[in-house]
Design brief:
alpha+beta, five-stranded mixed β-barrel, 13 helices, 27% helix, binds aspartic acid
Length: 471
Amino acid sequence: MLHVIMLQRSTVIETTKLVGQEVLLKGWVHGRRDMGKLGFIDLRDRSGMVQVVLVPAELSSRGQEAMKDLRSEYCVAVTGVVKPRGEKQINPDLPTGTIEVLAKDIEIYNPSKTPPFDLTSDTRAINEEVRLKYRYLDLRSERMQRNLVLRDRVAQFFRDFLHKNGFVEIETPYLTKGTPEGSREFLVPARLHQGKFYVLPQSPQQFKQLMMVAGMERYFQMARCFRDEDQRGDRQPEHTQFDLEMSFVEREDVMSLIEELYVELIKTVTPHKRIQQVPFPRLTYKEAMEKYGNDKPDLREDKNDPNVLAFAWVVDFPFFEKAEDGGWTYSHNPFSAPKPEHREWLMEKKNIGDILTTQYDIVLNGFEIGGGSIRNHEPDALKKVFEILGHSEEDIQEKFGHMLEAFSYGAPPHGGIGPGLDRLVMILTNEQNIREVIAFPKTGDARDLMMGAPSEIEEKRLREAHIQIKK
Ligand code: ASP
């Protein structure tokens, strides 16, 4: 049996090229059928599926024992010989349908309990709570594997494209201080500093701007962003975006680079998709609201065509909005610059409701998939924004002093954007929910059913973190 041990593992998909040869395959039993003394298993690995024929007389004694046990989702190694199938047995629906493997030996790595749901067909119809509890099984299904692979291809494309365009990927902290971008933030108690907290960033906004002050000129990061928002169908408490920032640019520079990125991405990663209009149409916020009643319009001419992609830009948002308390709040990002023609209004704090921001949002088939702006790199002008927002001098220094100070050391003009990954991949895979394209998502009410998070913490650890729970 020495030759068996020496065999290198082949993937299932490679078997079609190995007719007549002995192969060693490793994977999972996808299904099993018996016909009299003969057994057939579909053996699955990440590359695909192949039919394995079990004939007791051809099997080693270990193989014969294993044959009695084998059931769905057992993890096994099969040694066998690749045989061409007879004309009538060819299965044109299976990439390995021209061959089958006559098993000589089977090793069971691990048996499997009966899975809580069927993994051999699309799991979309299964109760989602059960799918999420057994996510590692759900992810064995073909569609979920395809989604994760496509997600990786999209991410890889972003990385390559940005590197080719002179960007450097730089990590920024997840344990940091709050940044105002409109969402509630997750708090992390600082054990070493009683009564103090870190905040998980809702985006790397301040750090990426500080990277521009640092002279990096082109930064990006595949960044996790944390937002403690109320339950909403297509939201997750953490999401991924390709956060980027560039120095010495104007709105047009960022928008045209990003447009080129999406066009190339679609050509490369999902060539079966068709972009409805290039260059992407641009709407002002006012036009979008008047014509479509929302600021992320679905511009598809044929909404039944699953392969059409209608990208569009929305620009010229009001910088400030009236807050409930009668004061002003920002519409998108307080670090944005106003449109150049409205800078004077900002400096004089007049016509506040008419000041437009340099913010640009990119929308795709009715979803906002990213947004960014040119930033306010002049400390005096940035301070005016915080004053309009009602912050006291003391508050401004406490919360934003580090930004104002950084900008007083020759900060370059800069701008950027944060294109999201989850919704984009959801649209490219024609899924209805971002949970279908995230490996380990949380439920709509932010629970991880597999890990059991959030969970209670032992008294000792609470004490260490200086936390007392109010019952
Ligand atoms: N920080 C923004 C966001 O997370 C992106 C940006 O303005 O670049 O949406």
